[in-house]
Design goal:
The complex is a heterodimer of chains A (about 190) and B (about 300).
Chain A lengths: L4 E5 L7 H8 L3 E5 L2 H4 L6 E4 L4 H10 L3 H10 L2 E4 L1 H6 L2 E2 L17 E3 L10 E5 L2 E6 L4 E3 L6 E6 L2 E7 L2 E4 L12 H10 L3
Parallel strand pairs in A: 1-2, 1-3, 3-4, 4-12, 5-6
Antiparallel strand pairs in A: 6-9, 7-8, 10-11, 11-12
Chain B lengths: L10 H11 L4 E5 L2 H10 L3 E4 L4 H7 L8 H10 L4 E6 L3 H10 L3 E5 L20 E5 L2 H9 L4 E4 L9 H19 L5 H8 L3 H10 L6 E2 L7 H9 L5 E3 L1 H4 L4 H13 L4 H8 L26
Parallel strand pairs in B: 1-2, 1-8, 2-3, 3-4, 4-5, 5-6, 6-7
The chains are: A alpha/beta (about 190), B alpha/beta (about 300).
Chain lengths: ~190, ~300
């Protein structure tokens, strides 16, 4: 079996913390910044990491990556973490500042950016199937469609979603000290086909 | 599968975690909500809210303090990205006030007039994370020992001259590299020489990097300056006076964001640098008297 090659969109954000998890699962990590790198046929799947979603959107537009990304998403598995999950949403709820933010509508949920509040509201918690989930200025998923499987919830909120070969987490499995995390294992073993 | 080792104080994960999210980006000084929106639209990962950018603090003289909470609150309301704000070195009450506002990060900063000639803030006592400046590894590890969750070079703020930022980053990098090749029996003496906590010296010697993200600040004025600091190992850059003291702040802001993302790609840096108009005029650090320098503040 050849090593699975997992791309991480590396425009901005928490890219490196994913590496140990993916390598522990026997994957090779590839950092993706350009259209050419994104369209490399040897890449099996992509992670859109945590970071600032408005910065990533700006850079996707500046470097003209949208066409390549949509082409990738059309066939290959993708996992959005926190900011990445905001980019994957059907729509982003209007921001308190009154502005709007675009998203790529890859899964059937809407998202509310920074829904818990400022950094003072960031928290860590154990969930039944996630040893330690780290929420940092996290978004909340809303209007979750019937095609989505909810993998984990915190209180009344769904925080880990799967739809076909696409996955979204509002928390940060890459910051978990359990290596590999439950989410990395699921993504690689269940959604990334050989 | 490795056995998890959770720290005694879990909030440090959340504090360092937010710093992780800011990597590969640009944090911009802004003095009002309009500038904050320009910064966010340009792709800043965070803004630093302050009344006067460092070059104006330099020009105006007098005592530089925490900014008016009203102005910080207006900036918090205007943007979605994290908002940071500065307190004077050692002024833990200013920090309590900023925490009550709900800012996302506090910069215990040499740019403001120090409030304590001997002690920095005990940053473990706060839920809000802190960033601090350093000129060398010993200073960085003392701040981390006090609870800082992000380090930045001091550089020489408000000058637009990158020379001190480069000196500080190279010094820290060299000192880290040195630790990784010392034998175990040398590390205690090295900790004594650095004036750094022994446990942190052991950690750096083993891992070859700071235990928290290592960012650059002080004198960054152009896309090339930003990329220089990142090629030298900084993981994100702070730009203070460099954006809103340039001829065209929106253009400069966007260009520096581009440069930080593609810091290793000369062609992208060329694109980012072309046709920006004049950068901030700047001030040569070598022309400053010792009392005009900000980097020696802090202990």
């Amino acid at each position: 079996m050849t090593k699975r090659r997992i791309g991480i969109l590396s425009l901005q954000g928490a890219v490196e913390p994913h590496v140990a998890h993916l390598e522990a699962l026997g994957c090779e990590v590839v950092r993706l910044k350009t259209s050419k790198e994104i369209l490399d046929p040897s890449i099996d799947a992509m992670i859109i990491p945590g970071g600032e979603s408005s910065t990533m959107l700006r850079l996707i537009s500046v470097f003209d990556l949208e066409t390549a990304l949509l082409q990738f998403f059309a066939t290959k598995p993708v996992w959005g973490v926190c900011a990445g999950s905001i980019l994957m949403a059907r729509s982003v709820a209007p921001l308190p500042s009154g502005r709007t933010q675009k998203s790529f509508s890859l899964m059937d949920y809407d998202v509310h950016r920074n829904a818990y509040g400022s950094q003072l509201e960031s928290f860590e918690v154990s969930l039944p199937n996630v040893e330690r989930a780290v929420f940092i200025r996290a978004p909340q998923f809303e209007n979750i469609g019937p095609a989505i499987e909810v993998m984990a919830s915190h209180e009344v909120r769904a925080v880990w979603l799967v739809q076909g070969n696409r996955m979204a987490t509002s928390f940060h499995p890459e910051l978990s000290m359990k290596v590999p995390s439950e989410c990395h294992r699921y993504f690689v073993e269940e959604l990334v086909k050989n | 599968m490795t056995t998890p080792q959770y720290p005694a104080n879990p909030t440090i994960n959340l504090k360092v975690g937010l710093a992780e999210m800011l990597k590969g980006g640009v944090i911009m000084d802004v003095v009002n909500a309009d500038q904050a929106k320009i910064a966010e639209d340009a792709g800043a990962v965070a803004v630093m809210a302050l009344e006067r950018v460092p070059s104006d603090i330099r020009k105006d003289g007098g005592v530089a303090r925490m900014s008016d909470p009203k102005m910080i609150e207006e900036i918090v309301a205007a943007v979605e990205i994290p908002v940071m704000a500065k307190v004077r070195i050692g002024h833990f009450v200013e920090a309590q006030i900023l925490e009550a506002i709900g800012v996302d990060y506090i910069d215990e900063s040499e740019v403001l007039t120090p409030a304590d000639h001997a002690y920095h803030i005990n940053k473990h006592a706060f839920k809000v994370p802190f960033v601090c400046g350093a000129t060398n590894l010993g200073e960085a590890l003392r701040r981390i020992g006090e609870g800082a969750a992000m380090m930045r070079t001091k550089g020489e703020a408000g000058t637009g001259d990158i020379v001190e930022g480069v000196r500080h980053l190279r010094t820290i990098t060299d000192q880290i590299r040195r630790l990784t090749v010392l034998s175990d029996e040398q590390l205690m003496t090295e900790a004594k020489e650095l004036g750094a906590p022994f446990e942190l010296v052991l950690k750096v010697a083993k891992e070859g990097k700071l235990p928290v993200p290592n960012f650059a600040a002080g004198g960054i004025a152009t896309p090339a300056d930003a990329a220089l600091m990142m090629q030298l190992g900084a993981e994100t850059v702070f730009v203070g006076s460099g954006i809103f003291k340039s001829d065209n702040p929106a253009l400069f802001a966007k260009a520096i964001v581009k440069a930080a993302a593609m810091y290793n790609d000369p062609k992208a840096l060329l694109e980012a640098s072309r046709g920006l108009g004049a950068a901030m005029r700047g001030l040569q650090v070598s022309s400053l008297t010792p009392s005009e320098q900000l980097a020696p503040r802090g202990w």
